[in-house]
């Protein structure tokens, strides 16, 4: 939780607003989907947002969920009605997620105005104004936004959104964003003989200096893939007989099950681009 203060005389001066004003959000309603689409600038005109700064902070967190893999159809914003609004707030917006048990709040953001500092100033008898260098004047700071959310609810959102049962595979696939996956890569020898296990250990040692990596040589290759699917590991690297011939390995993508080959020399760079730089698999 933070309180974002601005000069009350300059509350409309948000340098980031032009970048987000055309953004479309899901606005809560009573339709079958639970929302309608609306642009930020329209919502600001309607008074859904208290200010450009308020809009900016709500959009930032809405997009934050999406950037980590949450399907936007499961997100919406819900403005507090007058009877729900706290007495000190000019406006308050909840970001809600569509859980299997209904829409629930996962983030809140209120324009608190000058209530907090005003009350402190009133009862402490101490001046709490600050000097604004830009306007050369003293002002009582204004809370244009108070973004607030808990780690536990955010984690629950990511887990629910990622949880998938794949009928064709016959197992759960936890489609976590690679940045959120506990392990980024798992390394398997195709079989535990003929030097494949030794080579696999070498590849694992190479990778674990850069990634949270997992090594597994137990059971069939299919079972090992399934185990990693279920815990959300986005990529698996398999060392096979071709590896011994030309130094290449197979990388398998968790979500699509597609596979590509790359050299062991290029493996770290390839995985880094996939996990941390948003590279498309197979490109």
CATH architectural category of the largest domain: 2-Layer Sandwich
CATH class of the largest domain: Alpha Beta
Strand content: 25-35%
- Counting DSSP E segments of at least 2 residues, the number of strands comes to 17
Number of domains: 2
Query: Could you report the average pLDDT, rounded to the nearest whole number?
Result: 96
Widest β-sheet, arrangement of strands: 14-13-15-16-17
For this structure, the CATH topology of the largest domain is BirA Bifunctional Protein, domain 2
For the report, how would you describe the main beta sheet? 5 strands, mixed
- Rg over CA atoms: 25 Å
Oligomer: single chain
The number of helical segments is: 9
The CATH homologous superfamily of the largest domain corresponds to Bira Bifunctional Protein, Domain 2
Broad shape = elongated
Q: Between the first and last Cα atoms, what is the distance in angstroms?
A: 39 Å
Poorly predicted sequence stretches spanning 5 or more consecutive residues: none
Secondary structure: helix percent:
25-40%
Essential attributes:
283 residues, alpha+beta, BirA Bifunctional Protein, domain 2, Rossmann fold, 2 domains, 5-stranded mixed β-sheet, 4-stranded antiparallel β-sheet, 32% helix, elongated
Give structural notes.
With 283 residues, the chain is of the alpha+beta class. The protein has two domains: 4-162, Bira Bifunctional Protein, Domain 2 (BirA Bifunctional Protein, domain 2), CATH 3.30.930.10; 167-276, Rossmann fold (3-Layer(aba) Sandwich), CATH 3.40.50. Helix content is 32%, strand content 29%. It has nine helices and 17 strands. The strands form six sheets. A five-stranded mixed β-sheet has the order 14-13-15-16-17, with helices on both faces. The longest helix has 16 residues, at 52-67. The two termini are 39 Å apart. The model has no long low-confidence stretch (mean pLDDT 96).
